[in-house]
Amino acid sequence: MQNARDRLLLAAAELLESGATVSTRAVCDRAGVQAPTLYHHFGSKQGLIDTVANHGFTQYTAIESSGDPLDDLREGWDRHVRFGLEHPSFYGLLYGRVEPGKPCAVTAPAHAALRDRFTAAAAQGMLKVPAADAAEQLLAANVGITLTLISQPEPDFELSRRVREAALAGVLHTPTTDTPATRASAALTLRALVGNDPGDLTPGERGLLGELLDRLAR
Description:
Blueprint: H1 4-18, H2 24-31, H3 35-42, H4 45-61, H5 69-86, H6 88-95, H7 108-123, H8 131-151, H9 157-171, H10 183-196, H11 203-216
GO molecular function, one term: transcription cis-regulatory region binding
Keywords: DNA-binding, Transcription, Transcription regulation
Domain HTH tetR-type: 2-60
């Protein structure tokens, strides 16, 4: 038998998925508990909703690396879109309600995972811009296309593919043997490699080197 906390999570998730109003009373009635039980476990209704959203969101962010950063970035994009289309109420909760100057704590792990994928791409000489900037640009495009597809009667997956490739082309290049690395891409590559393996550099030396490489990457 499920405990009260699990029943509350399930009740909130079912209400969100159905598009119904997620009120404290509706959640508690569905879970068969009183409001103080909800407050005991989650602090508030918003705390419960954040927990539900975080659980659903982590399902698509947990992607094992294939060893190919470009494939991983494409897979991450497609999974992001699928999550939004399969769970539009969750997605609207995460990205459809924004407050000025307040990043969403629930989506922060996904953003961090995206930065890690771009850092891996930088280590292979594929990055045109710093990993943090690349993550911001790709995430903005990914969220925008997902909200667009949610609003369409028939989601245009080809549009998603085109936007994905255009967004990736803006931050990545594929190194080839006959194309020399640019100063910026070389600096970004070294930045990523030193970040992964600083060797015997002291913290001060790493900081100075990082500052110099960031300047060269501009």
